[in-house]
């Protein structure tokens, strides 16, 4: 049975075709793979940027080796002129921080994490272009506290489409990047969407990443490897990865 993920609270709204929010001043700095940002933009076509708004509606495969840091829970051509809304808000107190603290400590045990800031962007029941009437809900949640930052991507109902979709994140020159399995494939959308049915934290419909210096896993042979695997020779998984049960452990 599919687990139901609590969608984080949402307030401010963006309604414009191929548009973006105004520059949003963050109430706390957000560290994204070593780069500290004080501003963010919520872009209508399913992505977030930091240095400038970006209206791109044609997804590209990661890694892009491009000039921008980029968070893309659902990069495709969206159109909310007929139905759907894009919401965003940030929090420094209250129940949203409590929920974020609980979620991060569940997904990343051992950090003793306490959230002090959360930013939420939600594409709620948005349609695909052109004004298709379909309804898709996805969400990006940025969380920080102390030395740690994280991004959660939550997926609700994903309407079917023949359009390509890229989901994941990328960085300047692609020094860090991750593609959620199913991107640029028929399993990106519809009732069998891997975004909604899959997970890297054992919660279907949720994908969680540590972003202050790197996530706790990577893709190897098309599968996400994290807890329970050792990467040999290359932290980027370019060489090999084997289960811990197959790794010889020296006697302590």
Describe the model.
The chain is mainly β. It has two domains: 12-216, no CATH class; 218-252, no CATH class. It has helices spanning 95-107, 194-197; strands spanning 12-14, 24-32, 35-43, 47-49, 70-75, 78-79, 85-91, 117-128, 136-145, 148-155, 166-170, 177-179, 206-210, 218-220, 223-225, 229-232, 240-243. Strands 1, 6, 7, 8, 9, 10 and 13 form a seven-stranded antiparallel β-sheet that branches. The chain has a six-stranded antiparallel β-sheet with strand order 2-3-4-5-11-12, with no helix packed on it. It has a two-stranded antiparallel sheet with strand order 14-15. A hairpin with a 2-residue loop joins strand 9 (136-145) and strand 10. The longest helix is centred in the middle third of the chain and has 13 residues, at 95-107. It starts with 11 loop residues before the first strand and ends in a 9-residue tail after the last strand. The model is unreliable at 1-11 and 219-252 (pLDDT under 50).
């Amino acid at each position: 049975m599919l687990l139901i993920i609590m969608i984080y609270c949402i307030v401010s709204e963006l309604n414009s075709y191929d548009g973006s929010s105004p520059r949003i001043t963050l109430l706390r700095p957000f560290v994204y793979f070593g780069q500290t940002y004080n501003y963010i933009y919520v872009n209508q076509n399913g992505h977030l940027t930091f240095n400038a708004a970006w209206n791109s509606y044609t997804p590209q495969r990661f890694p892009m080796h491009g000039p921008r840091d980029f968070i893309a829970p659902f990069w495709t051509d969206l159109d909310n002129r007929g139905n759907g809304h894009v919401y965003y808000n940030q929090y420094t107190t209250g129940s949203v921080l409590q929920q974020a603290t609980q979620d991060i400590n569940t997904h990343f045990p051992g950090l003793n994490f306490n959230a002090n800031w959360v930013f939420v962007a939600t594409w709620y029941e948005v349609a695909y272009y052109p004004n298709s009437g379909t309804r898709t809900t996805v969400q990006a949640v940025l969380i920080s506290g102390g030395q740690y930052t994280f991004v959660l991507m939550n997926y609700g109902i994903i309407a079917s489409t023949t359009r390509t979709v890229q989901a994941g994140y990328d960085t300047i020159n692609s020094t860090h990047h991750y593609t959620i399995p199913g991107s640029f494939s028929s399993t990106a959308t519809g009732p069998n969407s891997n975004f909604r049915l899959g997970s890297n934290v054992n919660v279907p419909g949720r994908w969680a990443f540590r972003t202050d210096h790197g996530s706790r896993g990577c893709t190897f042979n098309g599968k996400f490897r994290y807890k329970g695997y050792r990467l040999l020779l290359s932290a980027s998984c370019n060489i090999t990865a084997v289960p811990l049960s197959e790794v010889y452990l020296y006697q302590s």
